[in-house]
Write a structure and sequence with these properties.
The chain is of the alpha/beta class. It has 10 helices and 19 strands. The strands form 3 sheets. Strands 1, 2, 6, 7, 8, 9 and 19 form a 7-stranded mixed beta sheet that branches. Strands 3, 4, 14, 15, 16 and 18 form a 6-stranded mixed beta sheet that branches. A 6-stranded antiparallel beta sheet has the order 5-11-12-13-10-17.
Length: 528
Amino acid sequence: MTETTDVLVIGSGFGGAIPAYYLAAGGARVTVLERGPRLGAAQFSHSMRLGTYNKIVDVIRGDGVSVVAGNCVGGGSVVYFAASLRAPSYAFERHGGIGRRMWPASISRATLDPWYDRVEEALPVARTGWQDVSYAGGVLAAACRRAGHTCNPVPVAVDTEACANCNWMLSGCAFDAKRSMLLNYLPAAEAHGAVIRPLHEVQLITPSPESGYRYAVAYTVLDPDDYTCTANVGIIHAKAVVLAAGAVGTPVILRRSAPLLGGVPSAVGRYFSGNGDHVSVADVDEGKVKSLLGLSRPDGTGYQGLPIGRPITSATYDHLDASAPEYSRFMLQQIYFPPLTNVLAQTTGSPGWFGVDKRQMRARWTSWLTLLAMTEDDNEGTFGAVPPTGGFIRLAPGLGQGTMSFRPTARTRQAWDRADTALRGILEKDGLSRVRPWTESLAGTVTAHPLGSARIGDDPATSALDDTHELRGLSGLFVTDGSAVPASLTVNPSLTIAALAERATAGIAARVAEAGVRMTGGVPLPGR
């Protein structure tokens, strides 16, 4: 099947849904292609049974790194934990390993603040209080206070009154309390005529032979019961393309397309970052929660609180110090992962991730406190050979083999070590717990925050996009997902990805107008 549209958006997470809304509301014909299925609250299953969560979540393993990514309409916004933080000012001034400022000169925390404002209002983001913090988050806060540190509730894109605190956010929200793209930008885009097509996986972007159209995009339609099977194929000709397939999918599509596009910038598929993510498990002494922190649950239990409440509720920001040198700044955040990830917690023995000691440790899993450190890494990830189809080779439902490689540099490991030292200073004080970082033996570095594989910047040698998010040398082809974020942020990146997408829409609309589409400016926030 061959057809046309004004704007083709590839991906429907933060980076795709936001441009789709503004361009549709501005007058363009917009088509959104999403490789995953479309589900709503009634279809989300709060279960770890195969055939449920793994229909909408992919774990993509590369060489030394594994990425957890959304695979559904709404993308990562459906399966993320909704922590919504602005990046600190110093994050925009980072040089990393390239010897110059990685972000474009036109973007700083101050210039991005108005776009942060818009996203926070559109979602909206809730400013939580201590009454919204889980017991696990409270234990972290009490431990921080005892060790001389501050701790604060984390702002979240959640309707806290509607939230059931069920801790199933990775499986989608059955209560529509999590403010994903399904509740704001995407329905607003459809109200203005945008067409969203689930189970459409983009394979190739080429120049269009059709008069008045810049690009032809080839896709396959996936079987809803078996994503390895193709039900149909097609081509859409578009006047502009917005690529938002995620930091694993976007560089693969571009590199596969490179020979027919006349080449893509050399930075595509380089400078991949996991946002410095580093997870540790604290095996908490129940008795010392009572004796040292003075805490207990109503039934007298000291802790056993890992699975209770929302996944992310509190964090310490004490190490987000703009005056500190690079690779020494990080945030420590209380977080919860499904029990399937418990195999990654290490014991004191060797190899530390299986055996009798591990079985005994896992038996106490409700007494764990899981912490996520978001540090400054070195953007050392790269992508290898392009897979035959899609963004990775699908091995099983929810499991894929990617082509990304991540070999942590000494500076990245130094940043992780500093976060580990700080965490131990808080949670091992007087034997409150024993802290053990996740093993790298099974899955390498694990991240749910992939960034930077087609990043914005001022230097063509080290950035694939200019500061308008347009791919260098390819007019009308834009990237607006996490691929565009130049470096790790030391906070959860979703709000920054969304703010950048808000900022990019004016430039995309201008390109669409150049192609002869009558566009209207001043589009309000969705729902306004």
